[in-house]
Design a protein that fits this description.
18% strand; five-stranded parallel beta sheet; 4 helices; alpha/beta
């Protein structure tokens, strides 16, 4: 799928207000062979989403400027049908997550679980070219 910038959307947007955590996540995802961009806030994520749509948004649920639910609501209003899937990362106790819809990735999370989610949402099926024998 082409986006407004003409690229494909096979990249992950990591929204994390902790600089070290964001850097580790972006490095892990890129080290696994995927593209990733980091955003330090919900507002920064929305600015990126206005320009280009990722295959997946990995968002911290509790950030300083807005929580992940607010980010999701604003992104839905802005993107309408071109909405990428959201995965929320949080260290919150499960009892505080009852009103959250979507995928929750508990912190600290298993990097294999994260990689499975990225692979599921960001790996394009490549069909072999037809042979002309």
């Amino acid at each position: 799928m082409a986006t407004a910038t003409g690229t494909t959307n096979r990249w992950v947007l990591v929204v994390e207000d902790d600089d070290d955590n964001r850097e580790v996540l972006v490095e892990f995802i890129t080290g696994a062979g995927y593209q990733a961009k980091g955003a330090s806030s919900g507002a920064a994520a929305l600015a990126i989403l206005r320009i280009d749509a990722p295959c997946l948004v990995l968002a911290d649920l509790y950030m300083k400027d807005m929580n992940g639910k607010e980010l999701l609501k604003l992104a839905r209003a802005m993107l309408k049908t071109a909405m990428p899937p959201f995965v929320f990362a949080t260290g919150a106790h499960p009892s505080k997550l009852e009103d959250i819809s979507g995928v929750i990735l508990p912190k600290p999370f298993d990097f294999d679980q994260l990689l499975n989610l990225v692979h599921h949402h960001c790996s394009a099926e490549i069909s072999p070219a037809p042979s002309h024998a």
